[in-house]
Amino acid sequence: MEGVDYLADERKKTEFDVEEMKIVWAGSRHTFEVSDRMAKLVANDPVFRKDDRVMLARKDLFKNTLRKATYAWKRINELRLSEEEASKLRSFVDEPAFTDLHWGMFVPAIKGQGTDEQQKKWLPLAYKMQIIGCYAQTELGHGSNVQGLETTATFDPQTDEFVIHSPTLTSSKWWPGGLGKVSTHGVVYARLILDGQEHGIHGFIVQLRSLEDHRPLPGITVADIGMKFGSGAYNTMDNGLLRFDHVRIPRDQMLMRVSQVTRDGKIVQSDVPRQLVYGTMVYVRQTIVQDASIALSRAVCIATRYSAVRRQFGSSNGGPETQVIDYKTQQSRLFPLLASAYAFRFVGEWLKWLYTDVTQRLQANDFSTLPEAHACTAGLKSLTTSVTADGIEESRKLCGGHGYLASSGLPELFAVYVPACTYEGDNTVLMLQVARFLMKTVSQLGSGKPPVGTISYMGRIEQLMQCRCAVKKAGDWLNPNAVLEAFEARAARMSVSCAQKLSKFSNPEEGFAELSADLVEAAVAHCQLIVVSKFFEKLQQDIPGKGVKRQLEVLCGVYSLHLLHKHQGDFLATSYITPKQASLANDQLRELYSQVRPNAIALVDAFNYTDHYLGSILGCYDGNVYPKLYEAAWRDPLNDSVIPDGYEQYIRPLLKQQLRVAKL
Ligand SMILES: CCCCC/C=C\C/C=C\C/C=C\C/C=C\CCCC(=O)SCCNC(=O)CCNC(=O)[C@H](O)C(C)(C)COP(=O)(O)OP(=O)(O)OC[C@H]1O[C@@H](n2cnc3c(N)ncnc32)[C@H](O)[C@@H]1OP(=O)(O)O
Ligand SMILES: Cc1cc2nc3c(=O)[nH]c(=O)nc-3n(C[C@H](O)[C@H](O)[C@H](O)COP(=O)(O)OP(=O)(O)OC[C@H]3O[C@@H](n4cnc5c(N)ncnc54)[C@H](O)[C@@H]3O)c2cc1C
Question: Where is the Acyl-CoA oxidase C-alpha1 domain (predicted)?
Answer without folding.
Answer: 278-439
